[in-house]
Amino acid sequence: MISALSIPSPGEEWRAFNLGQWLRDIGLSWFSLDITINAYALCILLGIAAAVWLTHVRLTRRGAEPWIVLDIALFAVPLGIIGGRIYHVVTHPADYFFPGADLLRVLYIWEGGMAIFGALIGGAVGAYIGCRVTGIRFWSFADALAPGLLIAQAFGRLGNWFNQELFGLPTDLPWGLEIDRPNAAIPVGLPEDVLFHPTFLYEIVWNLAGAALLLLIDARLRVQWGKLLGGYLIWYGVGRSVFETIRLDPSELFLGVRVNVWAAWAAVLLGIIIVIVQRRRHPGAEPGPYVAGRGWTPEAGVDSEAVYTETDLAGKDAALVAEKSGAPSATSGPAANA
C-alpha cells in the first residue's frame, strides 16, 4: 500500500537523456551529434571516479607518486567491468539465452547487469597487473582502494534504482519502494499498489557506513599488508548475504541458496583468511608502497616534505608502530614483493 513515506522510482524519462539534444536546447545548435547518456552507466562512472580519487589521495599519503593510481586503473577498470558483466550473465542465463534472444544484449551493460563479485575478481586481476607494471606493492594498493570500493558500489546501487531493478520482496513498511508495472521481476498476481523492500537503499547505507568505518580504523591503526581489504570483504560479504536473501529478481540456485549468497559467504571467509594470514606473515610495518628497487623520488622543491627512500619509509612506519606500543623503534629493511 503506497504511503506518504514510500520511495518513488524514477520514470522511464530519467533512465537516459540525449546529451546532444540538451546542448542544442541551450543554444549550441552547431552540435549535431546525438549522444545518449544512461543513468545507470553514469552512476557506474561516477562511482569509479570517486574510488579512483580517494585511492589516489590515500596511496599518495603512503608515499606513492601522485596519480599513479590512473596507471593501475587502466588495467583494473576494464577487467573489472568485463568480469562483472560475465559473472552477471552467467548467473542470470535466462535473461539472455532463450529462443529468439538477441545475443548482442550480452554486451549492453548500460541496460544494467553488473555483478560486484565478478567485478572484484576481474578488477583484482587487472590491479595485480597494474601494480606489477608500476612497481606498486599490491597490498598497499588494495588497502588504499578498500574504502573507495564501497563508495563505488553505493553509486552502482543508485544506478539500480534508476533502472528499477534488483528490488526486494513485497513489504508493508512505510518506506517501501514503488515499482512501475509491467516488470518481469514482479510475480503475477500481486496487487498494483504493493511496495517492495528498497534493497538498493539498504546497500547504499551499508556501503557508506562501511567506508566510513574502514577510514576510521585505518586512521587510528594504520592498517597495512592487505588487512583493510580483508575488512572490506568481511563487511561487504556480511551485508550482501543478508540483502541478497530478500531480493525478488530470479537467480541461479546452488543447494537451494542463491549463488550470490554463496559468493558473499566466500567473500567473508576470504577476508578472514587474508587478515589472519597477513597478520602472521607481516607483523611489522610496510616498507613503503613500492616493491624493492621500484621506488619513486619527487623532484627537489616539488614536495614540501622531505624525500624518503623505501628504507626511510620503513623506518618512519616502524617508529610510528613503536610509538604506539611504547617500545623502542628500529628501522627495518625492504620486504619482499607482496
TrEMBL record:
Among Pfam families, the record links this protein to: LGT (PF01790)
Gene Ontology CC terms? plasma membrane
How this chain sits in the membrane, per its record, is:
Multi-pass membrane protein
Give compartment(s). Answer: Cell membrane
**UniProt keyword annotation of Kinase present:** no
InterPro entries for this protein: Lgt (IPR001640)
Q: Which controlled-vocabulary keywords does the entry list?
A: Cell membrane, Lipoprotein, Membrane, Transferase, Transmembrane, Transmembrane helix
Its annotated pathway reads: Protein modification; lipoprotein biosynthesis (diacylglyceryl transfer)
As recorded in UniProt, its EC number(s) are 2.5.1.145
Q: Which domain of life is it from?
A: Bacteria
Which residues does the annotation say bind a 1,2-diacyl-sn-glycero-3-phospho-(1'-sn-glycerol)? Answer: 157
Membrane-crossing residues? 37-55, 67-87, 107-131, 138-156, 200-217, 229-247, 259-277
Q: Which HAMAP family match?
A: Lgt
Q: What does this protein do?
A: Catalyzes the transfer of the diacylglyceryl group from phosphatidylglycerol to the sulfhydryl group of the N-terminal cysteine of a prolipoprotein, the first step in the formation of mature lipoproteins.
- Which protein is depicted? Phosphatidylglycerol--prolipoprotein diacylglyceryl transferase
Species of origin reads Microcella alkaliphila
Q: Which gene encodes it?
A: lgt
